[in-house]
Structures are given as structure tokens and as C-alpha cells.
């Protein structure tokens, strides 16, 4: 097992991702010129109203919270039965998220349970990805060996940050978690890379060095060329003396697909002066602003800790109490030495 992550970095990672998500949500699908016309030349600088009230996170954070729940439940199962397949438990957790979206859920003998599915802040549809909805409606999870589709959308990578905080092999589990819904190698290998990056920076390692390691891990798999090339491009751009701005970000793509979303986020985290500058750079572009904001926020929050997040954003984030509660539970469940497993009614061990 990897050494435990300090509580302030766990909270920083999950809250940071939710803040980046909420900053980007109102301008997702909006061209940069239109963002600047509405918000000024610098673009969005704070939470603004959009389809939902200012400070509202989207499906990116919803699914990240259900990833966290799945990891806690898998550990409860391991302690209860002596064995657990984390990817299978994560699939059940994602079915809980599907239930919150008002969709028909292909439950087997087990229905929705636990506390997270009942949280009002999660009982809302906030532009969920079609690929996730469709794949989770199948009666079995997708996998690398048996993919449901050939999608490399960013819906797999944007939800796996918690795996880096606790996973024994974050790259492998990140791949498996994303492959539940996204069957293209770029869709799941980018997720494996992201989980590895979170694992490394949350334990104090250098982001650039960790990205090189992630590329090496990905290249051991078939179909890794796109993911590796995107990360190399991000590293190259970050090494230049160019002043970071949206035009540089957009050279990496729009973020709708997994490897582009990861590359944009790595670039923004590498050139960031602080948490705020990094996530604001990550959301102000003509693309998937909430997902790139969320991934960048996860990375910077994990690297810098919760105190680096502006207190105003932390307080005004809608649903921050739920994010903080899940983060505390994750810390408690994976503390060393091991404590009493969390309440099985709250986190059912299946």
C-alpha cells in the first residue's frame, strides 16, 4: 500500500476539484470570444450564474464523490469478507449516481443504499455525459477486455482523482474505473495517468516528474500513443517562456476527450502561480471548462492542500458540506493504523 495522504491534501483535492468544476460550469460550451465579451478580457474570475446558481458543481464532482464512496465501500467489504474487487464496487457506486439522475438502473439483487444517494445536492441532473448514462444502463460493467463502446470522452478521467488518494495501484485501478464506461484506450489510459498524478503530488512529489512516470506507465499498454503525445505536448508548452493564457491552453485542444482534458489540466497546474491562477486558466477556453477546471483543481488541491484554496470559494461552493464530509470519511477509512470500519449502513460493503 502507498503511505496515507495527509488529511489537508485529501480535502484540498476533493474541494479543489469541486471549485474548479463550479467555476467552469457556467461557461462550458461557450467560445472564448463570447466568454470575454460577457465577463471581460480576463474571462471568468469568480463563481457566476449559469444554468444553475453561482458556485454549483456538476456531474464531474457528483461522480467523483461516488468514486470516493465506492473506495470506502470496497475497503469495508475487504475488512468484512477478506476480499473485494474495487472496480466492481465502484460500478455499484456509479449505479447509485445513475439512480440520482432519475435514470432506470439495472440493479441486480441489490438496490440503492448508503447515504450519498439520498443527498439533495446530488439529486440533480447537471449535464451528465451521455456515454456514462448509456454505459451504466447496461447490465454489466465495461472493462478493458470487454468494452461497451469506443468512447474516449473525458467522463472517465474527470472522476478518478480519489483513487490516487488511496489506491494501492492507482494507475491500474484508474484504468479499470474509467473502462467501466469508456472503452477507447485514450479514455481509460488518461484516467490511469491522472490517478497516478494525484497519488504522486498528494504525497509531495514533483508534478513534471510524475507526468513523465505516467507516460511510461501508459506506454506499457496498447493504444497509448494519443495519451502519451498529449502529455508530452503539455510538458513542452509548460517549459516555454510564453505567458500562460487561453491561446496557449487551446493549443492542447478543447478538453472534450480524455487525453486533451488531462493535458490541459497538467499544463495549467504546471504553470500556475497558485491554486486560483491555475483553475482560472483551466476554465477560460472554448471547450469543456468544467471538466478541465475540476481536474486542475484536483491536482492543485492535492499538491497544495486545502489552505491554498481561497476561503471565499470554499464557503460559497454549494454542497461544500457534502464534499467535506466524504473527504473526512475517506481519511478515516484509510487511516493508519486502521480504525474501526465506517458504518456499513452508511457505506454498505458490496
Structural descriptors:
single chain; 350 residues
What is the fold's blueprint, element by element?
Layout: H1 7-24, H2 32-39, H3 59-81, H4 86-100, H5 130-136, H6 161-166, H7 170-179, H8 185-201, H9 207-219, H10 225-238, H11 246-249, H12 258-271, H13 275-283, H14 289-304, H15 311-316, H16 320-333
Strand content: under 5%
How many beta-strand segments? 0
Which overall shape is indicated by the principal axes computed on the Cα atoms? globular
Work out the radius of gyration.
18 Å
Elements, N to C (H/E): HHHHHHHHHHHHHHHH
From the N-terminal CA to the C-terminal CA, the straight-line distance is: 21 Å
Characterization of this structure:
By secondary structure, this protein is mainly alpha-helical. Helices cover 55% and strands 0% of the residues. The chain contains 16 helices and no strands. Helix 8 (185-201) packs parallel to helix 14 (289-304), helix 10 runs parallel beside helix 12 and helix 13 (275-283) packs antiparallel against helix 14.
Short characterization:
The protein has 350 residues and is mainly alpha-helical. It has helices at residues 7-24, 32-39, 59-81, 86-100, 130-136, 161-166, 170-179, 185-201, 207-219, 225-238, 246-249, 258-271, 275-283, 289-304, 311-316, 320-333.
Amino acid at each position: 500500500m502507498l503511505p496515507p495522504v495527509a488529511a489537508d491534501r485529501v480535502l484540498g483535492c476533493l474541494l479543489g476539484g469541486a471549485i474548479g468544476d463550479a467555476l467552469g460550469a457556467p461557461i462550458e460550451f461557450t467560445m472564448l470570444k463570447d466568454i470575454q465579451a460577457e465577463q471581460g478580457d480576463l474571462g471568468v474570475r469568480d463563481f457566476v450564474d449559469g444554468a444553475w446558481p453561482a458556485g454549483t458543481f456538476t456531474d464531474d464532482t457528483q461522480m467523483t464523490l461516488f468514486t470516493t464512496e465506492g473506495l470506502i465501500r470496497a475497503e469495508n467489504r475487504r475488512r468484512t469478507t477478506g476480499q473485494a474487487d474495487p472496480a466492481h464496487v465502484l460500478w455499484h457506486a456509479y449505479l447509485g449516481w445513475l439512480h440520482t439522475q432519475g435514470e432506470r438502473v439495472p440493479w441486480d439483487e441489490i438496490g440503492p443504499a448508503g447515504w450519498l444517494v439520498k443527498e439533495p445536492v446530488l439529486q440533480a441532473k447537471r449535464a451528465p455525459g451521455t456515454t456514462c448514462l448509456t454505459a451504466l444502463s447496461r447490465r454489466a460493467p465495461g472493462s478493458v477486455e470487454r468494452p461497451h463502446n469506443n468512447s474516449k470522452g473525458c467522463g472517465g478521467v474527470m472522476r478518478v482523482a480519489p483513487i490516487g488518494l488511496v489506491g494501492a495501484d492507482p494507475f491500474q485501478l484508474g484504468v479499470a474505473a474509467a473502462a467501466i464506461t469508456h472503452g477507447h484506450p485514450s479514455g481509460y489510459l488518461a484516467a490511469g495517468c491522472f490517478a497516478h498524478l494525484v497519488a504522486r503530488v498528494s504525497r509531495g512529489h514533483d508534478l513534471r516528474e510524475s507526468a513523465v512516470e505516467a507516460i511510461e506507465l501508459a506506454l506499457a499498454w496498447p493504444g497509448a500513443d494519443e495519451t502519451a503525445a498529449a502529455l508530452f505536448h503539455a510538458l513542452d508548452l509548460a517549459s516555454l517562456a510564453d505567458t500562460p493564457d487561453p491561446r496557449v491552453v487551446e493549443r492542447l485542444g478543447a478538453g472534450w476527450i480524455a487525453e486533451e482534458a488531462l493535458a490541459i489540466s497538467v499544463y495549467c497546474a504546471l504553470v500556475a502561480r497558485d491554486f486560483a491562477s491555475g483553475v482560472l486558466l483551466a476554465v477560460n477556453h472554448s471547450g469543456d471548462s468544467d471538466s478541465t477546471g475540476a481536474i486542475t483543481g484536483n491536482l492543485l488541491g492535492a499538491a497544495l492542500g486545502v489552505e491554498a484554496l481561497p476561503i471565499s470559494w470554499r464557503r460559497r461552493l454549494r454542497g461544500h458540506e457534502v464534499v467535506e464530509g466524504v473527504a473526512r470519511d475517506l481519511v478515516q477509512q484509510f487511516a493508519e493504523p486502521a480504525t474501526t470500519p465506517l458504518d456499513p449502513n452508511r457505506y454498505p460493503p458490496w
